């Protein structure tokens, strides 16, 4: 069995691959296809953007797809970068520049005021059926400097107090137990179980 994840983000693809492979489901993504233009993320929320991406690609290819719209919400920045996480430092979408911008904006802010969360909305779109959308969270704090080399995006500056490590200091297997993406996928799985389709809980 195969599922298409409507993303061009290598980091997301790699995480979905390891999460789905344990169910024997093969993950393919827009990186495996040619000539699929970027879907413009014009929504005000992660859910809206996830639905936009899933339905656009589903309509284009006429197969079921899952999309992921995710990002980082920082309390001291009134929720920024939020839905603009990928393009926070500009439309070139560079992780290093994005992290530098966040670290600069938080300069002088003490640890207890650096609370933040990763958010992931997953939308599941099927030809001729209603789209289903779920949201998962992961709470943490923004570090003063980068720590770790695993993961992608803002992982090196995202600290998990309970684990006393940054997200980039976790293995993929560890991240996939606690991440916003994993938490959203569990909810999607509940939906699949109710509908008796695609895959079953182990
Ligand atoms: O687990 C994560 N660990 C660290 N950073 C993360 C994570 N999850 C999302 N993020 C950041 C990366 C990017 O700055 C933004 C996603 O933006 P988002 O538009 O959803 O993805 P994208 O443009 O890279 O790929 P696509 O739209 O093709 O799925 O949030
Ligand atoms: Mg995007």
UniProtKB/TrEMBL annotation:
Co-factor binding comment: Binds 1 Mg(2+) ion per subunit.
Residues noted as binding Mg(2+) in the record, renumbered to the chain: 40, 69
UniProt: substrate binding residues: 7-12, 70, 152-155, 175, 180-181
Classification via SUPFAM superfamilies: ITPase-like
EC number(s) on file: 3.6.1.66
Family: Belongs to the HAM1 NTPase family.
Name of the protein in question: dITP/XTP pyrophosphatase
Organism of this sequence: Fictibacillus barbaricus
């Amino acid at each position: 069995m195969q599922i298409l994840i409507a993303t061009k983000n290598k980091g997301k693809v790699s995480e979905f691959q390891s999460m789905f492979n344990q169910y024997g489901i093969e993950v393919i993504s827009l990186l495996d296809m040619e000539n699929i233009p970027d879907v413009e993320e014009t929504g005000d929320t992660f859910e809206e953007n996830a639905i936009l991406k899933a339905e656009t690609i589903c309509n284009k290819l006429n197969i079921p797809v899952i999309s992921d719209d995710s990002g980082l919400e920082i309390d001291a920045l009134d929720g920024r970068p939020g839905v603009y996480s990928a393009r926070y430092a500009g439309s070139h979408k560079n992780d290093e520049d994005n992290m530098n911008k966040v670290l600069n904006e938080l300069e002088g802010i003490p640890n207890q005021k650096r609370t933040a969360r990763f958010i992931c909305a997953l939308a599941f779109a099927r030809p001729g059926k209603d789209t289903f959308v779920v949201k998962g969270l992961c709470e943490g704090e923004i570090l003063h400097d980068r720590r770790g080399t695993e993961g992608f995006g803002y992982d090196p500056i995202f600290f998990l107090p309970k684990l006393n490590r940054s997200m980039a200091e976790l293995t993929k297997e560890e991240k996939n137990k606690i991440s916003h993406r994993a938490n959203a996928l569990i909810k999607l799985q509940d939906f699949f179980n109710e509908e008796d389709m695609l895959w079953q809980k182990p």
